[in-house]
Design a protein that fits this description.
Shape: globular
Number of strands: 26
Strand content: 15-25%
Helix content: 25-40%
Number of helices: 15
Structural class: alpha/beta
Length: 487
């Protein structure tokens, strides 16, 4: 239980109607979660406006309401707080309610189109192995020390984030590594958090179903760095064309990293093959089980963050050389017939191109690449033809299939993917709508030495078809098919 006046400290208040010296036991932005002594925050969301549910919150026992527009009829028993921005207020309120847990941790936020999960997970594993009590908030997992909690969003809502951080503080965590999505930044889900380090990986096309323009997408990412305090650090990929924009006019201390220039943290690929990478980082050479140029960038991020947090270079490099990638990130298996299947989350044009370029660089002239992928329904339609074209350029065979079609017809999504494939390359393309069958076709077509890329779902263990969420695991399915073909 906390006093309302303490919970609302730091938010931009326009007007208060009522008493702020009252007790609050619960905060919520969903009116269905309101009970006696609850504070309801009315948010203007993407599909719903919380202001339409103020009366429901009042009837359920709310003792206070935060809103941008006051209701026409006010209750004498409820305190109303009119604010400029409810979503920003929610983050600050949530932080105050849980005793500002981010201020008691070394909190590292990682944003960018690709690499967030790998960087956050590698950092979690590194610090755990260095003996720190560590937390992770990522697309794949939420971890508090060794306890794993299922993840439903790349970045949870503001209340859930602070609840998790509060649990981490209680468990004695000192460091927390967190993915920060563009949705979360745009919706102010991380408002009120105190980041010690902000990391920028890259920007390529993604979430154009949500962000009106690329500039809006870039602007959302930049909000992480604009929010950093003057004693914080910004670690930014200066090989990326938008890297310098991320740190323009910020008050935090900026550090650059990359593989192609003389940056604060610089790397160089010495060797890259199917067994891993050899990379020179700041004059030290290390080997890693991770594969591809994109992972060289991820390793550089991990090193830069650890060094910025005061860790010793050789200790860091020694430990990260033995780390493996997160589930569904360039995860590969080899069949008894010597066919390699790579499972990867690549679901954007840039990510798909990065993985395919890596595979092309690793294979011999006689070996073929077979790519199985689809695109999610009810999401950015503009990337579908782009991914179709990319798959046809770098693959010897392409099998277009379903991903998570959601409410769309799988056949229509496939048609839009196919529209981007040049006619000159259409002969290498097959369409197999059912995903398991598509993987089976690829396994049957592949010969010894070939590589099958199964892209788009990675760690996900489901398919969303219509309103149903059905169990489906790319890795598990591929292993099963490999066994069937061997028999």
């Amino acid at each position: 239980m906390k006093l309302l006046k303490d919970i609302i400290y730091g938010i931009r208040i326009i007007e208060i109607k009522g008493n702020t010296n009252i007790a609050v036991e619960n905060i919520a932005f969903d009116s269905r979660e309101i009970n006696n002594l609850s504070l309801f925050i009315a948010l203007k969301g993407v599909s719903q406006d919380g202001h339409n549910f103020i009366s429901q919150a009042q009837n359920s026992g709310a003792c206070a309401i935060i809103c941008e527009i006051l209701p026409e009829i006010l209750s004498d028993e409820i305190t109303y707080i009119k604010v400029l921005d409810s979503s920003k207020s929610l983050g600050i309120v949530a932080s105050n309610f849980f005793n500002n847990p981010s201020e008691k941790l070394k909190l590292v936020g990682i944003t960018g189109t690709n690499g967030k999960t790998t960087c956050a997970t590698l950092l979690y594993d590194l610090y755990r192995l260095m003996g720190y009590k560590t937390g992770l908030i990522s697309t794949v997992h939420i971890k508090i020390l060794h306890k794993t909690i299922p993840s439903t969003h790349t970045t949870p809502n503001a209340i859930r984030i602070n609840e998790l951080l509060s649990q981490m503080v209680k468990e004695g965590c000192s460091h927390v590594f967190m993915e920060v999505s563009s949705h979360a930044l745009d919706q102010n889900r991380v408002s009120g958090l105190s980041f010690d380090i902000g990391v920028y990986t890259n920007i390529s096309r993604d979430h154009m179903d949500y962000h009106p323009t690329l500039n809006d997408y870039i602007g959302a990412k930049k909000k992480l760095f604009s929010s950093l305090k003057n004693d914080a650090v910004a670690i930014v990929n200066f090989d990326d064309p938008y890297g310098e924009e991320m740190v323009r006019d910020i008050i935090a201390k900026p550090f650059s990293y990359g593989l192609k220039g003389d940056f604060d943290f610089k790397g160089k690929i010495v060797e890259n093959n199917i067994s891993g990478l050899s990379v020179e980082i700041d004059g030290f050479e290390m080997t890693s089980r991770l594969i591809g140029e994109f992972n060289a960038y991820n390793l550089l991020v991990v090193f830069a963050v650890a060094k910025s947090l005061g860790e010793e270079a050789l200790t860091v490099l020694t430990i990260i050389s033995n780390l493996k990638a997160p589930d569904g990130r360039f995860e590969y298996i080899v069949s008894p017939r010597n066919i390699t299947a790579v499972i990867d989350y690549a679901h954007t044009p840039d990510a798909l191109e990065n993985v395919l370029k890596t595979l092309v660089s690793l294979k011999s002239d006689k070996e073929k690449i077979l790519t199985v992928f689809g695109c999610g329904g009810d999401r950015d339609k503009g990337k579908r033809p782009l991914m179709g074209e990319i798959s046809s350029v770098y693959s010897d065979r392409v099998i277009v299939t379903s991903d998570n079609p959601r409410s769309e017809k799988p056949s229509e999504i496939i048609k839009e993917i196919i529209s981007g494939i040049p006619k000159s390359k259409s002969s290498k393309v097959l369409t197999v709508q059912e995903r398991k069958q598509a993987i089976k076709v690829a396994c049957e077509l592949a010969e010894s030495g070939d590589v099958i890329l199964i892209a788009g779902k990675g760690h996900e263990k489901y398919q969303i078809i219509g309103d149903e969420k059905l169990y489906f695991d790319d890795l598990e399915t591929t292993i099963e098919i490999f066994k069937q073909i061997q028999q």
